[in-house]
Amino acid sequence: MQSLCGRISNYFVTSSARRIADRRLLAGRSCSTSACVPEIAGYEGVADHGGLHGFSVAQTERFWGAVARSRLSWNSPFHTVHDCDLSQGKIRWFLGGKLNVSVNCLDRHACAFPNRVALIWERDEPGSEVKVTYRQLLELTCRLGNLFRRHGVKKGDCVTLYMPTCPLAVASMLACARIGAAHNVVFAGFSAEALADRIRDAQSSMVITVNQGVRGGKVAELKKTVDVAVQSCPSVKQVFVALRTENPVGMTSRDALLEEELQKEDVVCEPAAMDSEDVLFLLYTSGSTGKPKGLVHTQAGYLLYALLTHKYVFNYHDGDVFGCVADIGWITGHTYTVYGPLANGGTTVLFESTPVYPDPGRYWEMVQRLKINQFYGAPTAIRLLLKYGDQWVQKYDRSSLKILGSVGEPINTEAWEWYHRVVGGGRCSVVDTWWQTETGGICIAPRPSDPDAVIVPGMAMRPFFGIKPVLMDKEGAVLSTNDTSGALCIAQPWPGMARTIHNDHQRFTETYCQPYRGYFFTGDGAYRCKEGYYQIIGRLDDVINVSGHRIGTAELEDVVNRCRWVAESAVIGYTHDIKGQGVYAFVVLKKEVDVQEADLVQHLKDMVSKSIAKYACPDFIQFVPRLPKTRSGKIMRRVLRKVVEHDVDGLGDLSTLEDPATVQEVIQGHHHLFSKTHQQ
Ligand code: WT7
User: Which residues, at least 6 apart from 218, have a Cβ–Cβ distance to it below 8 Å?
Assistant: First the structure.
């Protein structure tokens, strides 16, 4: 341990000195709320949330410059806070600065409090949690970093992770950061084809996986899926396999057992000094075309934004146990299971299971056992648990809980109320947090604010520091009044935002910067109420949100259209009780089909599972003789949406339809399918 501390002391000295300076600043002011940012406490007009927020957007350089200097440990200081031009898609923060993300997440804490628990791995098997201290996590990360280096991973390379949420996955992410490689975590529920697409696009030479995953008591063959995927990925030279179960796994000359290899490695690994704008990770997400986008996040700005939002939105304090139950395969897992909590020196829970395994009390039994202080989950799980009844919650002691967070989709009032009243016993603030893979961290949430500021159920409400939301009308003009809805944009850059789409900067600027030139377009619609608070309405593009996971309708149509019996298709989202949105596919068959409809439905669902993931499978497949189209041949999705929402009175203007009879056909077929389903 001595040697470790010796190597990292440089970083530690600067950060501890600054922490003392922070405390001095704090002592002299009456900043008692969590919203108080001591670095700027001396400036005028920053006594309350409104003042702080106003300062952060008006004096961007002073705000972000001050927090970046005091909260991150730098190898060399930045000379320019930012250099951005949103209209060109040019976003650069903390230029000239050098730092290492893993040092910021590990070394400085491992030196200050080596035995503090960094990770609590809540394994699928209830009651078998594993705790990992900062010292242990640093050592594991260093061994991994050395292993990756020895196998030729260099600065600028990309390592793909296909793993469940577990300490080795977190350490692998941090090991990449340590040696300057990018990571590309692929959600372990994705199919071999989807995994292969992402490995190829990222040009990864190394993949890390486990022999088998375990979730909800079921085994998933992750290594076998990797085997299939890498067959079509010539870039992959090495696959490391960790053992999550005791079952044997077939190995090839390309594979090696991770734990065995790690034993050979040293526990000290020199961190690479990275430029602020070097790539930290790629994360793929669906857009409105068939091809998922590899969003690129960089080092300093992302980390600082993760750190600050985690601290203030959740009012995180030293010693708190933070429980974000998202999988690390999604951005929520990246920012609020890994980077935010660790950058703050916190204790973070890695949840490997499901909300209903072994029973619907799982979350709350875990809260009791691990004494979780902040719980961060998804509305879809809350809606599901609500249906099982209050007794599953009330059985357990939840007195440790202080804040309850929600993310991924709008939370309906009933779910919000239940979360607040039953789960939180009316004592905890519920924070509905709006953000995206693209934004890197939370942009709109009820906190930070004075702890007793009002929170409106089902509303994300207030922009975070540095975030300036605007609503646009259809013509692209800024809507300046309240009590109005429009396309949600963000008027100026912030450090946590994605910098580009891997290998496709043009798509980045076209998607986010050009629809409303000079503004960042989120793809969501929002309402600003009389009091000026924001409520997110939902996507404005052809992206469906199933249980908080994005899936593009074009991606689904591409798969369905590949079936040799399918002539064409149109996929849309519809309101679903539990999942938020479900997938509904309209399919036109070719003439000469001699397969039973039921078999065809199954076949199409299998195709989607195989090509994308199980969660993306259509809930309904309706065969139609033709699709409603305009005279210019465009599918009228609006009409299809109205039909499945049973709003035939709201069909609107049908004058551009080529043949109005198609609408009746679709309505009749829909009724038929629905009555059939309800009889089953
Ligand atoms: C899309 C982003 C951000 C992490 C999880 C999803 C929707 C997200 C909320 C919320 C209403 C929300 C939006 C957004 N969304 N949070 N609190 N209220 N909608 O990340 O996969 O990048 O999806 O999720 O539509 O654009 P993602």
Answer: none
CATH architecture of the domain formed by 543-679: 2-Layer Sandwich (3.30)
SS (H, E, C) 20-45: HHHHHHHHCCCCCCCCCCHHHCCCCC
Judged against a pLDDT cut of 80, whether residue 20 lies above it is answered with: no
Exposed, middle or buried: residue 633 (CB in 10 Å: 0-12, 13-18, 19+)? exposed
The span from the CA of 120 to the CA of 349, in Å, is 5
> What distance in Å separates the CA atoms of residue 297 and residue 300, rounded to the nearest whole number?
10
For residue 661, give the amino acid letter.
A
Cβ(77)–Cβ(69) below 8 Å = yes
Per-residue tokens: 603: 């076949």
The fold of 4-26+100-302 is: Rossmann fold (3.40.50)
The answer on pLDDT for 304 being more than 60 is yes
Q: How far is the CA of 545 from the centre of ligand 1 (A)?
A: 8
Counting ligand 1 atoms within 8 A of each CB, the residue from 338, 432, 459, 524 with the most, and so the one to mutate, is 524
The whole-number pLDDT of residue 6 equals: 35
Q: Exposed (0-12), middle (13-18) or buried (19+): which is 461, by Cβ within 10 Å?
A: buried
pLDDT confidence band for 679 (50 / 70 / 90)? low
CA 671 to centroid of ligand 1, rounded, Å: 32
Strands 543-546, 549-552: pairing is antiparallel
CA distance 420 to 374: 13
The pTM assigned to this predicted structure is: 0.93
